[in-house]
């Protein structure tokens, strides 16, 4: 029951849902997510930690950056099922679409230097 509740709580915040939707399109670092969401870096990091603990996101190191991506859901059936469901939901949501449309203009070096 704990794993189920952890996944549901992680997805109960609009910013975390936006992070899931945008990571479904492209892997991003905290700075890029901060820029897209318009949130402070510590706030984005806190959201990512909650998503990671729920088994919804993973990360890898790339040079000096930590790059976040959606989890494969191997550790949690609940995370895997919810990621599969969320993938097909909210694509027409204006806030999500705006972030997706902004992806080509993102520049990691510029985002992280700000």
Question: Can you put this structure into words, describing what you see?
Answer:
The protein is built from seven helices and three strands. It is α+β, with helices and mostly antiparallel strands and 114 residues long. The protein has helices at residues 2-10, 14-23, 30-37, 41-53, 77-87, 94-102, 108-113, and strands spanning 28-29, 57-62, 65-70. The chain has one domain (2-113): Winged helix-like DNA-binding domain superfamily/Winged helix DNA-binding domain (Arc Repressor Mutant, subunit A), CATH 1.10.10.10. The model has no long low-confidence stretch (mean pLDDT 92). The protein is globular, with a radius of gyration of 13 Å. Strands 1-3-2 form a three-stranded antiparallel sheet. It starts with a helix and ends with a helix.
